[in-house]
Specification:
Blueprint lengths: L2 H11 L3 E6 L2 H10 L3 E4 L1 H7 L10 H13 L5 E4 L7 H13 L4 E5 L20 H14 L6 E6 L8 H13 L4 E4 L7 H9 L6 E3 L9 H6 L3 E6 L2 H20 L12 H7 L2 H11 L2
Helix pairs in contact: 2-4, 5-6, 7-8
Organism: Oceanimonas baumannii
Keywords: Hydrolase, Metal-binding, Pyruvate
Family: Belongs to the isocitrate lyase/PEP mutase superfamily. PEP mutase family.
């Protein structure tokens, strides 16, 4: 089963999927190892790994190349975060087949203007395109896809922009009617009340996608009980955990003046070699090197 079909059938069957953010192939392998259903090809994480703002600073090709690299070493469905789509509907018509060819199972496109600003920074610039313009982007994606199982997810930033729930619902419904296979709704509130109110009023069969970064008290069991959510995305926890671990180890080495102080359980070189796929290379050596 191709990865797009795997994701589409899970959504159709009502099996809520969990997706963890990734920013390179190694993080993707660790996500697979942990047992998540999907990989989230996070624009925030990729930007952070290049130490630039999450504001469409990185070019389209850099993002596409990383998604291809991740898909080449994994089998889990990869959801690519396209931000605003790197341009307009015409742009999306050209680039979406390239993501399909790269092994991506789904894309998410959001309804902010290009270039975007990140969603959860305080006092960020959150400007939305008009509904008709974004409907055109969704239709362009659906028309451009070659694999009928490919999943197109529309993301509304209405709540992030401080607009009322009624506006967010109107936008989400318009995007679903334009052909989106799922709708991602985001909030920066510190409690899940706003999102729960949105979900309660959602009356279409199109599944929702939630990203509970700002309201971690809403756990998977609670979300699953809503019976309307198809995917839960943990949007930035790979880069945050990697940064936390590196900062702690680097500081410890400087403070102790050497690597004699590394803690028990610190990742061994052999573990990294295993994650690099060394076993496959040794098999090839046995078969073909003389």
């Amino acid at each position: 089963m191709n990865r797009s079909r795997q994701l589409r059938e899970a959504l159709k069957a009502g099996h809520m999927q969990t997706a963890m953010a990734v920013h390179n192939p190694l993080s993707a392998r660790l996500v697979e190892e942990a047992g998540f259903d999907c990989l989230w090809g996070s624009g925030f994480e990729l930007s952070a790994s290049y130490a630039v703002p999450d504001a469409n600073i990185l070019p389209f090709g850099t993002h596409l190349d990383m998604m291809r690299a991740i898909a080449s070493v994994t089998t889990t469905p990869l959801i690519a975060d396209l931000d605003t789509g790197f341009g307009n509907a015409v742009t999306l018509g050209y680039i979406l087949p390239q993501y399909e060819a790269a092994g991506v199972a789904a894309v998410v496109v959001e309804d902010k203007t290009f270039p975007k600003d990140t969603s959860l920074r305080e006092n960020a610039r959150q400007v939305l395109v008009d509904v008709d313009t974004f409907e055109g982007k969704i239709r362009a994606c659906k028309a451009a896809q070659k694999n009928p199982d490919f999943v197109v997810i529309a993301r509304t930033e209405a709540l992030i922009a401080g607009l009322p729930i009624d506006t967010a619902l109107e936008r989400a419904q318009a995007y679903a009617n334009a052909g989106a296979d799922a709708v991602l709704v985001h909030s920066k509130q510190k409690t899940p009340d706003e999102i729960l109110a949105f979900v309660e009023r959602w009356d279409l069969n199109t599944p929702l996608v939630l990203v509970p970064t700002a309201y971690p008290q809403l756990n998977e069991a609670d979300i699953r009980a809503l019976n309307k959510v198809g995917i839960v995305i943990y949007g930035n926890h790979a880069i945050r955990s990697a940064t936390w671990a590196m900062r702690a180890i680097f500081r410890q080495i400087r403070e102790q003046g050497g690597i004699h102080c590394l803690p028990d359980g610190f990742t061994s070189v052999n573990e990294i070699i295993e994650l690099q796929g060394d076993a496959k290379m040794r098999d090839l050596e046995r078969l073909y090197l003389r």
